[in-house]
Design a protein that fits this description.
heterodimer, A: 101 residues, alpha+beta, globular, B: Sulfite Reductase Hemoprotein, domain 2, five-stranded antiparallel sheet, 18 helices
């Protein structure tokens, strides 16, 4: 299980490829990629979004099911999804009603 | 302090305009990311985990109240209300939007600040002793020479594409507070037998994945030759430094692979080519720059000041502890340099809110001759305060959560941003620092332990200077988990040493206990409270610590 992530060009915001072709700011809305074909399609959309000046540096991350939802496997990606671990007032975790970013 | 001349103003403002155009072209698609990335890095703009990061240069860590207020304004207007002071005496903003960066740079230019050469393979911000111009033990103020080097190295066409980044540090005292021996070039101001100013020159120090202590290439370099000799070093490095492998590209590797004698001969040969030419420092120019750093008009110590201060200490134990730890001896009678610790217990080392920055600016104006310093230990300093004013300064600092009396103690921890912010990091460092800080928070316990420098890096690049921590901590990732390696016995002063790895690493949950074990071991074996951690370690070696940590010595 994977997702495609990147940073948005204009402001650096962490984003993931969404279920539609849009780039979403919340991991829970990310498109879950199962299998090579889905990954290849996502990477092609990522390349197009780079060319379209929406995002920079897209890459695939591993996901796992945890706490009733999807979470990145690596701590680095969990921190990107939520925010600095010692500053709950910063990053996506600080947004109203944020649960799993 | 130094004020921009017409040339400085012109090149900083033209650089802002140039970068504004580059951002516009990037956002409009005229520039690809590959084309734009080196341009943004030349202007201090990185892309980190959560957002862009802007690193602003604070030349030799010196700034005034107006500049500090501008940093606070930038933090509040364009960022998330705080900034992070770094181990290179700079400040970083962690959340700016790319489209806002040109406006931020324009605002900084209004107060003679910029982000040029805070990244890239060029000569970076020249750093200096944070007590420069104030310290009682100073031979001479290092800042005029740091400023001369800044002017020489800014946009230097020959040295804008070096094999790798290049860092220069200058200290004005024999007791090295600028860690010059772990810089590419370290300069220590000295006087010869005739009383003339010059420099002891060190080359090839550095931390990172291959830590090395610099080698001395000159015992005494006359003042007039500063730029010619520095240029000779840079030319030799630029010519022979490796470009085939970025991990072997720093001048420390060139020194290691070439050998001191050969490299010194190369430098001296090049020096003979360039000396006695345009790079000779005219005395008049040195005097002109030095005049910018003239000491402020210190007030005469009035009769009764010392007694009043002593009485204040007697009546307020918290103030007494603060004065003992956070005041440093000053060259002027009745004055001290006051460290404002950015390490409140349990907080992120080096972070300051906009409100805290503004308070420091107010204090500098009211009590400190409008001078502020950033130390490489991630604290702020009011270099010139009357001891008589310290009780009032302390009172105001306490109201803002900035009166931690821990300068040089175990909770005065250097920590890089680590994996909470940094794209290169492999482990978190700030939360480790916070937990150690909380573990040793009790004032009496910190005082009992005494001088102890803990330094934490979240990856092998060593921005947290862990190699020169008395206790160094390096965070790495192993099989998806954070692990923390402990080094002992490092030091970044005039007796610089690289810490030795004590054994296998500890988990995120276990690292604080391990540090406590090291500290308790020290307390158990020291010969007296006057034998600090480093002295005790140097006396007994690592065996007792290994035994305590692993039972395997």
């Amino acid at each position: 299980m994977k997702a495609l992530t990147a940073n948005r060009l204009i402001d650096g915001e962490v984003v993931w490829l969404g279920r539609a072709a849009a780039w979403v700011e919340i991991l829970a809305e990310a498109r879950v990629l199962e299998g090579e074909a889905a990954e290849a399609e996502a990477l092609a959309l990522g390349a197009a979004a780079v060319a379209g000046r929406l995002i920079v540096d897209p890459y695939l991350i591993d996901l796992e099911r945890a706490d009733g939802g999807l979470q990145p496997v690596r701590l680095r990606e969990r921190i990107r999804a939520h925010g600095p671990t010692m500053r709950p007032d910063l990053g996506k975790q600080a947004r109203p009603h944020s649960s799993a970013a | 302090m130094y004020r921009y001349d017409e040339f400085d103003e012109s090149f900083v403002s033209s650089r802002v305009a140039q970068f504004r155009d580059q951002v516009r072209r990037r956002l409009s698609g005229d520039l690809s990311e590959d084309q734009f990335k080196p341009l943004r890095l030349m202007n201090g703009v990185y892309l980190q985990l959560h957002a862009y990061m802007l690193r602003v240069a604070i030349p030799y860590g010196t700034l005034n109240a107006r500049q500090m207020r501008k940093l606070a304004e930038v933090a509040r207007t364009y960022d998330r209300g705080y900034g992070h002071f770094t181990t290179r005496q700079n400040i970083q903003f962690n959340w700016p939007r790319l489209q806002d960066v040109p406006d931020i740079l324009a605002e900084l230019a209004e107060v003679e600040m910029h982000a040029i050469q805070t990244s890239g393979n060029c000569i970076r911000n020249v750093t200096a002793d944070h007590f420069a111009g104030a310290a009682a033990d100073e031979v001479a103020d290092p800042r005029p020479y740091a400023e001369i080097l800044r002017q020489w190295s800014s946009l230097h066409p020959e040295f804008s594409f070096l094999p790798r980044k290049f860092k220069i540090a200058v200290t004005g005292a024999a007791h090295d507070r600028a860690a010059v021996q772990v810089h590419d070039i370290g300069l220590q101001l000295v006087r010869d037998e005739a009383g003339s100013i010059g420099f002891t020159v060190f080359v090839g120090g550095g931390l990172g994945r291959t830590p090395m202590v610099a080698r001395k290439v000159r015992d005494f370099l006359p003042e007039t030759d500063l730029l010619a000799y520095t240029e000779a070093i840079l030319r030799v490095y630029n010519r022979y430094g490796r470009r085939d492998n970025k991990y072997k590209a720093r001048v420390k590797i060139l020194m290691h692979e070439t050998g001191l004698d050969t490299l010194r001969a190369d430098i001296e040969r090049e020096f003979e080519e360039v000396r006695s030419g345009v790079l000779d420092l005219p005395k008049a120019e040195v005097d002109r720059i030095t005049a910018y750093f003239a000491p402020p008009p210190f007030a005469q110590e009035e009769a009764g000041d010392a007694d009043a201060f002593a009485q204040a200490l007697d009546s307020d134990p918290a103030l007494a502890v603060f004065a003992e730890r956070n005041l440093a001896p000053h060259k002027a009678p009745g004055y001290a340099s006051l460290t404002i610790s950015l390490k409140p217990i349990g907080e992120a080392p080096g972070d300051a809110s906009a409100e805290q920055m503004e308070l420091v600016a107010d204090l500098a104006e009211t009590f400190g001759h409008d001078e502020i310093r950033v130390s490489h230990e991630q604290n702020l300093v009011l270099p010139h305060v009357r001891r008589a004013d310290v009780p009032e300064i302390f009172r105001r600092l306490r109201g803002a959560g900035l009166a931690e009396a821990n300068a040089g103690l175990i909770t005065d921890i250097i920590a890089c941003p680590g994996m909470d912010y940094c794209a290169l990091a492999t482990a978190r460092s700030i939360p480790v620092a916070q937990r150690i800080s909380e573990r040793f928070a009790a004032s009496g316990r910190q005082q009992e332990i005494g001088d102890l420098k803990v330094k934490i890096s979240g990856c092998i690049n060593a921005c947290g200077h862990h190699h020169v921590g008395h206790i160094g901590i390096l965070g790495v990732e192993k099989k998806g988990e954070e692990y923390y390696q402990i080094t002992l016995g490092g030091s970044g002063d005039e007796n610089t040493a690289i810490g030795q790895i004590v054994g296998r690493g500890f988990s995120y949950d276990g690292i604080v206990d391990a540090v406590e074990t090291v500290v308790d071991t020290y307390l158990g074996l020291r010969q007296s409270p006057q034998e600090d951690f480093l002295a005790a370690y140097r006396r007994v070696g690592d065996a007792p610590f290994k035994e305590a940590l692993y039972g395997t010595a």
